[in-house]
């Protein structure tokens, strides 16, 4: 919109500026459509997505109509007055961003992404308390990524974890689950076995988040290299995470508060190697 306002003041580049603004609008439209779909699924408590979509479309139509009426009033006032035009543009833009921020903050998602899962696990490890969905959502950042400096790759090939027989032996140590974890190139890698159940996948994701938190607290991302001493320390953390998950996973997953507060599906965000939906 800002580019379209400025376009008349650059006649030589008018077409280019307007076309570029149209491209940006299309990108925003795609991102907004994807976000809207996720929120519609979240709001369809009774599998009534069609009803929710219809009401959303009706509200959007009314808002657009109100915007049209306001624009009919403002256009005579701002014509040939670029200063007032820019002032009103920035005022309405700030109001729009503030309204969107409050709307995002008001949403309480009852499924886990990486940030919410990490927040809940950190609190549980700290005092054995499971955060409620409103508490977890309130702690999730909006503008900046969650402070997870170690990315997670779920569903990698075996060779990305065990590049030698020694690595495979270390990956199997203290591990009785049908998946393997390892640290490679600053990433927590998870290799799932063919017999891994959905519960195993959820546990693997939880353990990967715990392991990532361990690595974040002990090293910066630049320090997670491939030196033998560092690799030995990484495998020790992997073994420690196996023991920790053996102690906390079943009480955490089967806890009455967890069952009542959160839906057990875990929605994995784009920060992982692939987007997946895990349901129990």
TrEMBL record:
A single Gene Ontology CC term: membrane
Localization terms from the record: Membrane
Coarse class of the protein's main subcellular location: membrane
Root UVB sensitive protein C-terminal domain ranges (all copies): 129-255
Recorded superkingdom: Eukaryota
Protein root UVB sensitive/RUS domain: residues covered: 1-127
Bilayer-crossing regions: 6-39, 60-77, 83-101
Family statement drawn from the similarity comment of this UniProt entry: Belongs to the RUS1 family.
Protein's UniProt name: RUS family member 1
Annotated source species: Haplochromis burtoni
């Amino acid at each position: 919109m800002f580019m379209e306002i400025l376009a008349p003041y650059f006649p030589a580049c008018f077409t280019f500026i307007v076309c570029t603004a149209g491209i940006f609008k299309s990108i925003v439209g795609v991102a907004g459509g994807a976000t809207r779909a996720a929120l519609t699924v979240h709001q369809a408590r009774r599998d009534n997505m069609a009803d929710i979509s219809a009401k959303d479309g009706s509200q959007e139509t009314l808002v657009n109509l109100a915007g049209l009426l306001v624009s009919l009033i403002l256009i005579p006032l701002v014509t040939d007055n670029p200063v007032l035009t820019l002032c009103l543009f920035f005022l309405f833009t700030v109001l729009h961003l503030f309204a969107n921020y409050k709307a995002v903050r008001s949403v309480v998602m009852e499924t886990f992404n990486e940030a919410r899962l990490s927040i809940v696990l950190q609190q549980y490890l700290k005092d054995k308390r499971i955060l409620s969905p409103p508490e977890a959502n309130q702690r999730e950042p909006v503008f900046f990524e969650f402070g997870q400096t170690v990315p997670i790759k779920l569903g990698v090939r075996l060779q990305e974890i065990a590049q030698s027989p020694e690595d495979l032996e270390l990956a199997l140590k203290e591990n009785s689950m049908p998946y393997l974890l390892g640290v490679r190139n600053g990433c927590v890698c998870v290799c799932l076995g063919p017999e891994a159940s959905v519960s195993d996948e959820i546990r693997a994701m939880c353990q990967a988040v715990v392991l990532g938190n361990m690595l974040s607290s002990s090293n910066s991302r630049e320090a997670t290299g491939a030196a033998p001493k560092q690799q030995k320390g990484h495998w020790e953390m992997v073994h420690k995470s196996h023991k920790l998950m053996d102690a906390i996973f079943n009480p955490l997953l089967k806890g009455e508060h967890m069952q009542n507060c959160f839906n057990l599906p875990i929605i994995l965000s784009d920060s992982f190697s692939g987007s997946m939906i895990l349901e129990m």
